[in-house]
Fold this sequence. Notes:
By secondary structure, the protein is α/β, with parallel strands linked by helices. The chain contains 15 helices and ten strands. It has a four-stranded mixed sheet. Strands 7-6-5-8 form a four-stranded mixed sheet, with helices on both faces. Helix 12 packs across helix 14. The protein is flat and about 75 Å long. The chain starts with 12 loop residues before the first helix and ends with a helix. Residues 1-6 and 260-271 have low confidence and may be disordered.
Amino acid sequence: MLIEMITPIETDPRWQAVRERDAAQDGAFVYAVRTTGIYCRPACPSRLPKPANVEFFAGPAEAEAAGYRACQRCKPKGAPLAARQAELVAEACRAIEASEELPALDQLAAQAGLSPFHFHRVFKAVTGLTPKEYASADRGKRMREELSGAESVTDALYGAGFNSSGRFYAAADKLLGMKPDAYRKGGARAEIRFAIGECSLGAILVAQSERGICAILLGDDPEELIRDLEERFPNASLIGGDRDFEDLVAKVVGFVEAPNLGLDLPLDVRGTAFQERVWQALRDIPAGETVSYSELAEKIGSPNAVRAVAGACAANKIAVAIPCHRVVRLDGDLSGYRWGVERKSALLAREKRA
């Protein structure tokens, strides 16, 4: 009968990180392989070595002092993989923003030195959007900016980088949620249905435009919630919801009460591409867990943009569905929730119990 022997290294948590290719451990240590004379990052994609041939070092200097050389695949002496990928994606974003037309995926991938498939996957991992979605968000941002300041829709058309009116109008409904001229006039002729319900956190208002849900507001006074909605959409027609719409409100209330069930609703989320990256990262935070603003900035590949991340959280108009309540200060403080710290605390407590 053969008995499988477990070597001491197999019980080392660092070996588990190597087996899982855990990028979060990059910079914490390196591992070296005696049979090849090479040392690597924990996340190196190379074939796993036999545990008996592995030894660990605190960093590249220690590994090289022991006679090992750096892996040419994972480049353990350079910046961490996540940082390199974020830099490549940032360059691609600048290329997209500077182009009148969306550059071909092959072209963007070639500039990054990656295959189209790998580039597409890395871009979405870093930004939360595909290159096409990022280009659409940037185009929408430019369109809104131009329409807000241009003397005519035609001026805005060319200012936003469209070279034909047909393409501009074809994209306008999706990017604006209304006709360009209506947008210039502050949402004139747009119809927004809304209804108010009650949940354990107080009054809740749900509003829906042609594109989907455009606001979920929480507060103590229903009248204040209506005034808030009027200020957000000053020139739109606000229409009280019927019984079917009240069913939608009930569904949202159900999500507030049991967040682990999820919320399968269309969201009318407009914002800058950066805000969309932050809001997507917020939706990726599991119920019952919290992250700091700096950790959230790390997650979207912009570690130095902590203030901008906080601003994007503050700009979120859709309570609960985009869970900015799961972001706390570095010291764990719950301040900074537009619907009140008490509600933020109650939401987090309910999620942890669920």
